# Entry
Amino acid sequence: MTIFIGRRGLLTTALRLFSSGGVLQGSNAANRDGMFPEDFVWGASTSSYQIEGAVDEDGRGKSIWDIFSHEQGRVQNSDTGDVACDHYHQWRQDIDLLSAGGFGAYRFSTAWSRILPFGAGFIEHRGLDFYDRLVDRLLVKGLRPWLCLYHWDLPQVLQERGGWLNRDTCTRFADYARLVAKRLGDRVKDWVTFNEPNVHALFGHGTGTHAPGLEGLANTLAAMHHLNLAHGHAVQAIRAERVGLRLGNVISLQPVRPSSDTTSDRHAAERFDAMWNGACLDPLVKGVYPQPVAGDFAPLLADGDYATMQQPIDFLGVNYYSPMYVMEAPQSVFGVWFGPAPSGMRFTAMGWPIDAGALTEELIRLRDRYGNPELYVTENGACYEDKLLAKDVVVDNERIAYLRDHLAAVLDALAAGVNLRGYFVWSLLDNFEWAEGYSRRFGIVYVDFRTLKRTPKASYHWLAKVIKSQTRRN
# Structure
C-alpha cells in the first residue's frame, strides 16, 4: 500500500513555506539551508526543436517536426520551429542565464538530423561542432551538461522508411547514440536516451496531434515498443563506446484517476495507467509489459526483446505536470480519454489541473513498486498568460506559486525516503510549444518572438533565490 504524506500533513507544515515574494519562510527558517540535500541537482530543461531554430543551416537535415509544422492546420497560428528562440546563434547568452540563476545543470537535447542529416551514414560535423561548443561553455560556467538524445525530432528520411513503426529505426538510433557518445562522452557524463517516449507514441502515432501525425492504436503500440527497444539498444551501444557514463531515460509519469466512480471509468483508469505510466517503465525496470496491456503488445514481441529493453540504467527521469482524470471513451484510440477533473480545482493556461501532492504520490509509487531507483524530476513547470510590462518586467506570481508548491511536494517525497537527487524546471525559455506553437509560455525567461530578446521573469529571480539558499557550490 502506498504511503502518502498529505499536502496538509505535519511535514509540509513544518518544512515548507516558500513565500511568493521571498525565498523561505516558516517555523524552521533558521534551518532552511538543510531542507534539500547539499548535493541536490538544480537544473533547467529545454529541447532542440523547441529552441534552436536554424533549421536549414550548417547541413542540418529535415526532421518530422519540420514537415509537420509546415502542414496546414497542424500547429496553432501556423507557427513553425524555423527560428524558435534562435538558440543556435544565441546559446551563449542562454548559458549565461543559467549561470546567473545559480543552476548547476542543464538538460538539453541534440538534434539527430543536425548530426546525421539522412538519419544514418553521412556525418555533419558542423552539427557536432555546435554541441561541442555548447558543452565546453557549460563546463566553463560550472554547469553540468545532461544530454538527451531524442526529444521527438526523428529525421524525416527515417520517417519515410517507416519511422518508429520500423524495427530497423532502433538500430539507426543506437548508431546515432554511439556517435554522439564518442564525440561528447569525454565531457558529458549524464545521458538520457529518450524524452517521454509514451507521449511521443500516443500523440505522434495514435491521435495524430504531434509529428509525424499518424493515427490508430496499432501505430501507438508499434511506436512505443520500438522506442523501448531503441532505448535498450542505445544503452548497449553507449556502454560499448565509453565507460563511466551515467545512463537513464525520461518518462512522463502522472497518477491516473477515474473521472467518476463508475465501474467503467475505474477500469478505464486502470488500463490507461498501465499504458501511460507502465508501458515504457515496466519493460525498462521489470522486463515485462504491465498485465492490463500485455496482450496488446504480445504480437510485437520477438525473442530477446525483453532482455534488450531491460538494460541496467543509473537513473530515471520523471516529467510531471498534473494528475490525469480519465473516462471510458470507446471512440478514442485506446478506449480511454481525458475526462473532467473534480470541481474546485485550479488549472494552468494549458487547462491542466494543479495538484502538487500528486507529484509526491507518483514519486512514492516509484519507491514502492520499482525498488526506489535514483530519480530526478527532469521537467516540472506551468504555462500561464505572461505579459511583458514596462521596464522589462514579467510578473508571473501564478508560476511562482506552482513552483513553490511542487518544490514542497519534492520535500515531502524526500522525507518519505524517495531516492530523489534533483529537480529541473521546464523550461528555461519560452519556446515553440509543439501543436500550440508560440501561444503558450512555460519559460522562466520571457522570449519576445519578434525580436528574440530574453527577459527573466519574476519566477526566474524567485527560483534563483531558492537555489542560492539551498546549494553549496563546489
Notes: The chain has one domain: 39-407+421-463. The domain at 39-407+421-463 is CATH 3.20.20.80 (TIM Barrel).
